[in-house]
Amino acid sequence: QVQLVESGGGLVQAGGSLRLSCAASFSTAVMAWFRQAPGKEREFVGQYFWGDGHTYYADSVKGRFTISRDNAKSTVYLQMNSLKAEDTAVYYCAADKFYRGTQRTGYEYWGQGTQVTVSA
Fold first, then answer.
1. Backbone φ, ψ for residue 86 (5° rounding)
2. What is the pLDDT of residue 1?
3. 41 vs 68: CA distance, rounded Å
4. CA 8/CA 3 separation, integer angstroms
5. Which residues contact 119 (CB under 8 A, 6 or more apart)?
6. Is 19 a residue whose pLDDT tops 90?
7. Between 20 and 30 A from 14 (CA), which of 1, 2, 39, 90?
8. Shortest CA distance to 31 belongs to which of 45, 52, 47, 43?
9. How many angstroms from the chain centroid is the CA of residue 12?
């Protein structure tokens, strides 16, 4: 069964840190993170290329967010530092067996989402 299970959201003050996890039940070339704030489109945050460990980030989070993996657990992490109020959103991990881009429509499999709230 294809499944992505997320965890790690919560409430944090501005300037603080949170780490999100996404455990996959299948092999994939790329795992991505997206987020959706109330009233806004779901937007790309970053992605991890499983084969070579390459990462790519949206400009809005570059230098503050880091994606890493745990091979043994087939888990990808999103470490979020220096959080801002505008980072408040529901965060989703996504995967696809073939797609490697940054468009949300390219990803077939999605986690359930986890809420991140940053208080100013």
1. -70, -5
2. 74
3. 25
4. 17
5. 11, 12, 13, 14, 85
6. yes
7. 39
8. 47
9. 17
Beta strands 30-36 and 43-49, pairing class: antiparallel
How far CA 47 is from CA of 29, 98, 103, 119, 120, in Å, comes to: 10, 14, 11, 26, 27
Q: Which amino acid is at 44?
A: F
What SS3 state is found at 72? helix
- Residue 5 to residue 102: CA distance in whole angstroms: 20
Residue 36 has which token pair? 């959706």
Token pair 């529901």 is at which residue? 90
More confident call, 26 vs 65: 65
Amino acid sitting at position 79: Q
**Neighbouring residues of 2: CB distance < 8 A, sequence distance ≥ 6:** 25, 26, 109
Give CA 44 to chain center in angstroms.
Answer: 8
pLDDT tens digit sequence for 43-94? 999 999 988 899 999 999 999 999 999 877 789 999 999 999 999 999 999 9
Q: Six-digit token pair at 40?
A: 């806004």
